[in-house]
Structures are given as structure tokens and as C-alpha cells.
Design a protein that fits this description.
Number of helices: 2
Keywords: Membrane, Transmembrane, Transmembrane helix
Structural class: alpha+beta
Strand content: 15-25%
Shape: elongated
Number of strands: 3
Transmembrane segments: 12-34
Largest sheet: 3 strands, antiparallel
Order of helices and strands: HHEEE
Amino acid sequence: MKKKKFPVINTGAASVLTVFVILAMVAFALLTYMTARKNAAFSQDFADAARAYQEAEAQAWEEIARIDQELQTAWSEGTFSEIAGTEYAFTVPCGEEKELQVELYACDPQENSGSLYRITSFTQITTKEWEDKSTLNLMKP
């Protein structure tokens, strides 16, 4: 009688393959979870920064409205010529490390389409000092 020959790959190989597939699935699940956590943190930081900017912008527009009222009063009293050409500048905090910097220029309404001022700057600036954190050593002695 002839002996039966078994294939080189036995049933143990299927078990090993199953273990590897499960390990791969666990690894991908962990990578997906870590990516989702990082994305959630980034989204929260972005939402906080956007909220801080919108609050700072609202405060800046309130200050611009106050300056506009002051200029309107000077215009109606006839004393606008004394303050024409004046520059107004102020900053509004925008989060922990940024500020909203606003500059206005009081000008004659005939020169500026009826408005008593021109906004010359409305920018967000960083107040934190830059730190060099690079560790590249390009010039090795």
C-alpha cells in the first residue's frame, strides 16, 4: 500500500495565517484610532483659534464704531479739520499668542467715498517670540 503524502502546508499554517491577519487588523485599528484622536485634537485647536479670532474681530469692530462715532461728532461740530489726518491704532488680544492689530486713518469724506476714516491695517500678528527648535547639524566639522 502506498503512503499518503501530505502537502507541505498543513493545517497549522492556516492558524498562523489567521493570527497574522488578526495582528494586522489590530495594528490598522490602532493606527486608525490614533489618527482619529490627533485629528480631533487638531480640530478642537482650530475651532478655539477661530472662536478667539471672531471674538477679537467683534471687539475690534466695536472699537472702530466708537472711533467712528467720535469722528461723526467732530464732523457735525465742525472740528473735524483739526483731527483729519490723525492715525488711530489699537490691538485686541486674540488668544494667548496672537493679537489683532488695527490701524485707521481719519480722512475727508469726499476723498474716501463718504466715510470719515480708512482702515489701513487689519491684521493678526503673533506676539510669542520665535524659538529655533531645529536640531539639524548640516555643517559637521
